[in-house]
Amino acid sequence: MKGWPVELSHGDVGVRPLKRSDAGAWARLRRADVAWLAPWEATLPPGGGSAPMSYRAMIGAQRRRARQGKAMPFAVTWKGEMVGQVTVNGIAWASARWGSIGYWISRRHAGHGITPVAVALVADHLLDTVGLHRVEISVRPENSASLRVVEKLGLDEVGLAREYLHIDGAWRDHRIFQALADDRPGRLLARVTGTDDAREPVT
User: Fold this and answer.
1) Do the Cβ atoms of 181 and 132 come closer than 8 Å?
2) Distances 201 to 12, 62, 83, 172, 175 between C-alpha atoms, Å
3) Could you say which of 76, 174, 185, 202 has the lowest number of CB atoms within 10 Å?
4) How far is residue 23 from each of residues 19, 28, 62, 102, 149, measured CA to CA in Å?
5) CA atoms of 84 and 116, how far apart (whole Å)
């Protein structure tokens, strides 16, 4: 897939492909923030399949989907330390050319402007380099922290999708936001930082 793998950065914030060697850091972050993350975590509905995958199984599946051009699993870093994750899922080509972005960050690093920069880096890369026409972010109406991210990005709200995803044990409504390649007055990074100097060494 064009534009993958890739490392992107702005200042102290970076995104890079999630690696098998991130397992320890990923597990520590998740254990420390179980209560912080649980209300926004995807869950399986009754009869929806097997138990949640281990990190090894999850990263293996994500890497396979990335090779197929269907996903991009990124680690979010702050001064080189993994502090969260941005994942692009559901990448569709042909006449659609769109993808969905999801993200989480450790509670200790939340509220410091890291997530908006990380998401902007990924979204701009998808729209400018990968060749997608549209990126989507879905947010539960109750998730004020995540709503602040899309507000800083200046995304357009499409509407409310009822019972859109199974989250924290039930079907939950989500507000849907989007950015289109053709109607951005500027790159999303510039909206959240005031500058547009992302570094993009393709690896």
Assistant:
1) yes
2) 15, 22, 21, 38, 34
3) 185
4) 8, 9, 14, 19, 26
5) 12
Nearest Cα to 37, choosing from 118, 101, 86, 104?
104
Residue 6 · residue 203 · CB < 8 Å? yes
- Looking at residue 46, what is its pLDDT? 87
Closest CA to 170 of 15, 34, 40: 40
What is the sign of the dihedral through the CA atoms of 47, 49, 55 and 59? negative
| Verdict on whether the full-model pTM lies above 0.85 | yes
According to DSSP, the β-strands at 170-180 and 81-92 are: unpaired
At the topology level, CATH places domain 8-193 in Aminopeptidase (3.40.630)
How high is the pLDDT of residue 25?
A: 96
Residue 175 pairs in a beta bridge with 139, 160
Instruction: Going from the first residue of the chain to its last (203 residues), give the mean pLDDT of each consecutive group of 10, the final group possibly shorter.
Output: 95 96 95 95 80 82 94 98 98 97 97 97 96 98 97 96 96 97 86 75 41
- Distance in angstroms (rounded) separating the CA atoms of residues 40 and 141: 11
Rg of the Cα trace of the chain?
A: 16
Q: How many CB atoms lie within 10 A of CB 180?
A: 14
Is the Cβ–Cβ distance between 8 and 196 less than 8 Å? no
Q: What gap in Å lies between CA 9 and CA 117, rounded to an integer?
A: 9
What letters, b where the CB count within 10 A reaches 16 and e where it falls short, cover 139-149? Answer: bbeebeebbeb
